[in-house]
Specification:
By secondary structure, this protein is α+β, with helices and mostly antiparallel strands. The protein has a single domain, classed as 2-Layer Sandwich (Alpha-Beta Plaits), CATH 3.30.70. The chain is built from 2 helices and 6 strands. The chain is globular.
């Protein structure tokens, strides 16, 4: 199950997230999304946990938990980043 983890502090690492989520089960992958131009974190990540029950336990336990003084926002699945509307009205 793929989890979206938002509201990350810029200093959050993939290792931080892996350790945090692995307390609730197996973590298959962690990817902090970075700006292609600057290489800086976009302050959200995807954590993949193959066991659905473990993933749900992690969400229930970690939603709103403070990491580097920022409350985590966790949802199931893909949440696309906000993109501005183009002049013709298409995103």
């Amino acid at each position: 199950m793929k989890l979206y983890v938002g509201n990350l502090a810029s200093e959050t690492t993939e290792l931080d997230l892996s350790r945090l989520f692995s307390a609730y089960g197996t973590v298959a992958s962690v990817e902090i999304i970075k700006d292609q131009r600057t290489g800086e974190s976009k302050r959200f990540a995807y954590v993949e946990m193959p066991n659905e029950a473990e993933a749900k336990a992690a969400v229930n336990a970690l939603e709103g938990m403070r990491l580097y003084d920022r409350p985590l926002k966790i949802t199931y699945g893909f949440v696309p980043p906000e993109t501005p509307d183009l002049p013709d009205g298409n995103p």
